[in-house]
Amino acid sequence: MSLVGVDVGGTFTDFVIVGGDGEIKTLKILTTPREPERAVVEGLSSVKFSEVLHASTIGTNALLGQVGLELPKVAFFTTRGFRDVIEIGRQNRPRLYDLYFQKPRQIVPRELRFEVDERTLPDGTVERAVDLREVEELARRAKSAGVVSVAVGFLHSYANPSNEEAAAGVLRRHFEYVTASYEAAWEAREYERFSTAVVNAALMPLVGRYLAKLDDYVKARGGRIYAMASSGGLITIDEAARRPVQLVESGPAAGVVAAAELARMLGERRVISFDMGGTTAKAGTVVDFEPAITTEYEVGGESHRGRTVKGSGYPVRFPFVDLAEVSAGGGTIIWRDAGGALRVGPLSAGAEPGPVSYGRGGSEPTITDANLILGRIPSAIAGGRMRLDVEAAERALAKLGDPVDVAASAIKLVDLEMARAIRLVTVERGLDPAQFALMAFGGAGPQHAAEVAEEMGVNRVLIPPMPGVFTSLGMLMADFKFEARMAYPRDPAAGFEELERRLARHSPDYFLRYADVRYAGQGWELTVPVGADASRDAIRKAFEERHAATYGFKLDRDVEIVTIRVFAVVKRAKPRLRDPPKSGSPEPSEKEVYFDGWTEASVYVREELPLGFEVRGPALIIEDYSTTVVPPRWRATVGKLGVLELRL
């Protein structure tokens, strides 16, 4: 029986299958956006499996309004006087001078926000207990209005959730889907906590049904299915259905997990994870074999040069692998603006219709079309099952000017865009990218990795085995990860011990500790890892080192520990990656490839390269689902576990 990792992306759905004998097979098929489970079932139909590990962007797509993923009718129960908090939000304007800016559409309309006469004080004292008869009456009103799912958010429930617990208990007698804010985000800041609860409530029916369909299919065939969380760990389907808010960035997180685990195998302590797929490119960092973690995210929002635009989406307070994401994938559309300047993105051709060269009805030229006519990728991809139409790509690019000039310029523009994303997770986090190796994967990542690295001053690039489906492999490398948190602990050391006791039911192999810390008077926190010494002095020292690295200074102020969190990690057996053969004499073919001009380049098949073999650029190294471009002045060496190391 096999283990299967499945990543449902915007363009392709990827599968990595590890058999009982350790043999690894791969599969890539086009995603079915309107019914994402259809592509998953199609890929699984020919496999005998015992476990399926799954990542999907269905939650994000639903909040973005994708056709076929309509959100249910949601009600919000809150403290009297606070029903408009989720609409007022923060004073963040994504476009400061845009007089016509529209806030994100409200998930809960005002008439479905119900106020409850209760009050808990900031110290946890219950000043006014919740009236359960009032909640009962409001629940009937919500039910008669056609509400399907309910969120409960009371003031200061992070200090004492008893009123929320009581109200949620009443609501669960009327509704199948109920989210209490202390369960979704047990921490301060009512707007972010309420928003997290509302987003979770909106996703529960949709994601729950989707996961139930897959769970039924997998169980009917004698297997079990688990989901990848945005924090970079696996969780059970029950946990995913209860708190689907933690799945919104599950696919991208799996790629960073794969990079971290491969870095551990190679002994690489500092790695930049660079994942370029068909729709977007993502960058993250791995330090000492652990992905960087952040605790805030705006789902369904806009991004600008890789930054999340504050106020453009729905805030979610949950641990996420720290990623910068830009609209730069193989399917990213190339166009000219009103002034005639060449532009790349943010629109993507996606899986339907896809790049022009796919022959599926696409009419706008894309980055894949540009790479194709420049000779940087072969005319057959997806294991040879999909042939690309070079002439169609040239005709589409010719609408914008000389096809070769347009393609070459577009490649440089998209490389700059991806370099900006890498700066966000390195330079702007106080990290020097020159001290890192760039690990590039995704179907398009190895095509652009060397030139992106050169732009960033990075002189080492690592191309993992099976880069085109590396995110799916990452799910098979992930451990189970369960999270608990506590706001404003009086004694952080005792607080961490309490959280670890709560998580002990999972029988973890070890715990990871983090604290969200700020100087007194600051509005936002930095997340720092906490070791065995969880005293206030130790946490202050770790915070001040992170603050100085991030912002370049320290302050002579008291330090506040706002939230502490613990991950219980249950280790899983990992797939074994093997070294390539020690001998072999690969014979390259030759083809014309465009760099700064047309030049003769060697073309190698990756599976034929022995351990220690060196390829000097200009060259292409082709394999199923991806092509590694070795530019002039670069050289590639086949290392342990089959990793290609590119150096200037």
Number of strands: 37
Straight-line N-to-C gap = 43 Å
Count of individual domains:
5
**Overall average residue pLDDT:** 89
What is Rg? 25 Å
- What is the makeup of the main sheet? 9 strands, mixed
Low-confidence stretches: none
**Protein structure class:** alpha+beta
Helix percent band: 25-40%
**What coarse outline follows from CA principal-axis ratios?**
globular
Number of helices: 16
Quote the beta fraction. Answer: 25-35%
Description of the structure:
This protein has 648 residues and is α+β, with helices and mostly antiparallel strands. It contains 16 helices and 37 strands. The strands form ten sheets. Strands 13, 14, 15, 20, 25, 26, 33, 36 and 37 form a nine-stranded mixed sheet that branches. A six-stranded mixed sheet has the order 3-2-1-4-11-12, sandwiched between helices. A hairpin with a 3-residue loop joins strand 31 (589-594) and strand 32.
Quick rundown:
The chain has 648 residues and is of the alpha+beta class. The protein has five domains: 74-206, no CATH class; 259-328 and 413-459 and 468-476, Nucleotidyltransferase, domain 5 (2-Layer Sandwich); 332-412, no CATH class; 480-570, Dna Ligase, domain 1 (2-Layer Sandwich), CATH 3.30.1490; 589-647, no CATH class.
List the helices and strands and how they pair.
Blueprint: E1 2-8, E2 12-18, E3 24-30, H1 36-44, E4 49-56, H2 58-63, E5 74-79, H3 85-88, E6 113-116, E7 119-120, E8 126-128, H4 132-144, E9 149-153, H5 162-171, E10 177-180, H6 181-184, H7 190-220, E11 224-228, E12 234-236, H8 237-242, H9 250-266, E13 270-276, E14 281-287, E15 290-291, E16 293-299, E17 303-304, E18 307-308, E19 314-321, E20 323-326, E21 332-336, E22 342-348, H10 367-373, E23 380-381, E24 386-387, H11 390-398, H12 403-425, E25 437-441, H13 445-456, E26 460-463, H14 470-477, E27 480-487, H15 492-503, E28 510-519, E29 526-530, H16 536-551, E30 559-570, E31 589-594, E32 598-605, E33 614-616, E34 619-623, E35 626-630, E36 635-638, E37 644-647
Parallel strand pairs: 1-4, 4-11, 5-6, 5-9, 9-10, 13-25, 25-26, 32-34
Antiparallel strand pairs: 1-2, 2-3, 7-8, 11-12, 13-14, 14-15, 14-20, 16-19, 17-18, 21-22, 23-24, 26-37, 27-30, 28-29, 28-30, 31-32, 33-36, 34-35, 36-37
Helix pairs in contact: 4-5, 9-14, 10-11, 10-12, 11-12, 12-13
